Amino acid sequence: MIPEISLDDYFTHILPPLPESLNGKVDAIVQNLKDSGVITPRGRWKGFPRNPKAFEKKTVVFKKLSEIFDAFFVEPNIVSHHQRGDKSRPDGFVKEKNTEGKLKVEPTHAWVDLAHPQEFKLEDDPSGVDNDASKVVYSMHQILALDPRRRFTTGSTIENCTTRLWFYNRSPFFTTESFDFIKDHERLVHLYLSLAFSSSTDSGWEPSIKVSRVDPVTRERTYEISVSTKQGDKVVTETYKTVMILSEVSTDDMGRAARIWLVVDSNGYYRVLKDLWLDKNRAPEHEIRQEILRDVFKTQNQAAVDRLKSHMLTPLAHCKVCIEGVEDDTIAVMMLFQLKVVGALSPQTAESVSQSLNSQPPPNSQHESKEARAPKVHARYHYRIVFAEYATTIYDERNLGNIFRSVEDVLCALVQATSTGMRQSQGVSWVTLSMPNSALIPSAHEIRTGTPYFMAAEALSHAYLFQSQPLPTTIRLPFRLDCQPQRDDDSIINDEALALAPAPPFIYNGLHDLESIWWILIFVLFFNEDKAHPSPRPEERQSEMNHRFNGRMDSTYRRDFFRIKFSEKFDAVSRFMSPSFRQSLCTLLSLSQSLQEAYTLSEKDYPDINDSPEIIPYMEWRTAVKSESLLKATSMIELHHVKARAQASFDSPTSGAGRKRERGGDLELLDEQKSKKSKWARDDSGRSRNNVNAE
C-alpha cells in the first residue's frame, strides 16, 4: 500500500519553491501560453490534440511534453550509468547541469546527475499503473542508493492523461492524488517551472559533499566531504577527501544509508568517515561513547576507561549535517511538517515495489478508501563522524583466524561496557553490530534498527521469541564445544501460546549484541571459502546465502535459521561449506546453543524479562573464540570471496522491454542519439535554469 497525499500538500511542501520572480505568476504564464497558442481554444496542449492513448508509440507522444517548455529532451534508449554496472531506462528525468564546468569524463546521463525520474504509459489501466509505479520507485531508489550527495528525490508517472507525483527519501515514500495533465494546465506549468528553476539543494543534492574527481577509466568518483564540529562557541570545519569506500551495505535499502569511507584530511592523514541517517530520538554516536566512558569511570576507574578505549574508535570530528543553517532531517526540513495522508494506491502486482521497501506485498486492489490509515513515518537526521583509526574491516580480512581474534576483542569491550550496569553496548563503533537503544533515551524504541544482515532474530522480529521454551535446568548448562546438535520436540516454540500472551514493550539487550556477532561470523563463512579447499556445492551455498542474507526486514528465514534450523541442518550446512570450515561451524553451533539457553533463561518469567548482564555468556564465548585449537586451524585458512553480495532483495522491474539490472563489472553506455538541447537561460533573479528532460 502506497500512501497518497493531496496535490496541494505536495506543491506547497514537497516541490522546490518557485523563484521570487515567478511567485504568483503561474496563472499569468498559463494565460500567455493560451495567447501564444501553446494551449488551444479547446483547452488542450497544442502537442496533444488527442489523448496519448490514441497514439501507437509513447516515445512520440510524450516527447511533446518537452516542447511545452523548450526543455532538454532525451531519447528513451539512453542508459543511465553508474560504476556498479546498472542498466535501466527511465522514460524521462530532470538533469542538473553544472555551469562551472562539467566533468567531461562522466557519462552523458549518469544516475548521479538525474532527478525526478518519469514513467509513461499510453493506456490508463491497472497494469500500466503497476508497471509505472514499480519503475519510478526503482529509479528513485537508484538515485538515492548510488549517489551519497542525495537527500531525497521526486518523480512522476503518467498513464494516458492521469498524472501522479512521487516523493522518496530516507524515511517515507508516497505518491499524490492524480490529476489530468491535459486539462489541469496550472499544475503542469507549476511542476515544470519548479523543477526547471530549482536550486540543486532544493532538488535534493547535499551541498557539503562535492565531487572533486572522476576516474576516466573506472568512473569512480572522489568526493570532498565537509564536517563542521562545534568546539565551544566556535564551529571548526574540516574537509576530507575520499580514498575508497569501506562499506555501503545500507545504501540499497530505504533507511539509514550508512556509508563509510577511508578519507584523507587536510594534513594528509588517513581517517575513517561515517555518514548515515539516524532516527530522530537516537543520540549521536559520539555522545553515546562519552556516556559509556563516564559510566565506566564512575563504576570502575581510569584504568578501566583506558582499557575500554583501546577497543573503541576515537572520534575526531562529528556533526549533524545542516542545510542552510538548519539541521537536516527527513521530516522538518525535507517535508516541512507531517503530511496528511488522504488515501492509498495499492498496485495489483507490486512485488518489485514491496520488495524494494522491505514490506509485505500490498492487497489486490488498485485504490483503497480515502480513510486509509496513515503509516508511521519515523524522522531521521543526517549525521557524520570521523575516526582517527583505520584498519582492515572484517569483510576484507583474508585470514579467518584474525577474524576470530577480533571477535574476542569485541567481547572484551562488551564485557567492560555492560559491567557498568548498562543494558547493552549502545552501538558504539567497535564492530558493525545492530544499533541498540541508547541509555540516554529512557523509553523503549519501537523501530527495528541496524543492518538487517546482522540483526538479532528478536530485533528483526521486534518480539521475544524464546519465552515458551522450557528450561532444561535451573542453572546454566556447561558450555559445549562438541559438534552435535541437541534438540528435542519440546524445544519447539509454541507460536499460538506466544500470540495469546500479553506482549511487553520490546527492549534491546546484551544478548542481541552477541547474536549480531554470531551473524557476522555466519556471514563471513557464507560469503567466503577456503582458497585451498573450495566449497564442493557452491550452488547450494549460494541458494542458502540468498535466503539468509536477503536484506529484508520482514524475512523469517534468518530468524528460524538461528532458532531451530542451524541445529537441525548442521550436517547439510557443513556439506556445502569449505571442508576446512568444519571446526568454525562447530564453534558457531555451540555459541548458538549457549545463547539460546541464555535467551530462554532471560524470558522464562515472560512478560517479565531478565536482562541483567549476569545471564549473558560473555566468558563462555570468549573461551570458545580464543580456543587454541580453533585459532590454530583457522589461522591457516586464506579466505576467498565467493560473491560480492547475496542476490539483491531490490531488483529492477522485470516488466518492460529491456529493463535489466546487472551488477557485474563496468558496462559501456549504449549508443546514444544526439538529443535536442535547449540553450541556457536565467530567470530574473539570476538563477541558472535546470534542463528538463521528458519523453
UniProtKB/TrEMBL annotation:
Native source species: Gymnopus androsaceus JB14
Fungal-type protein kinase domain: residues covered: 90-413
One Pfam family here: Pkinase_fungal
Residue ranges of the region described as Disordered: 352-375, 648-695
Biased composition (Basic and acidic residues): 663-687
Domain of life, per lineage: Eukaryota
Name of the protein this chain belongs to: Fungal-type protein kinase domain-containing protein
Record InterPro entries: Pkinase_fungal
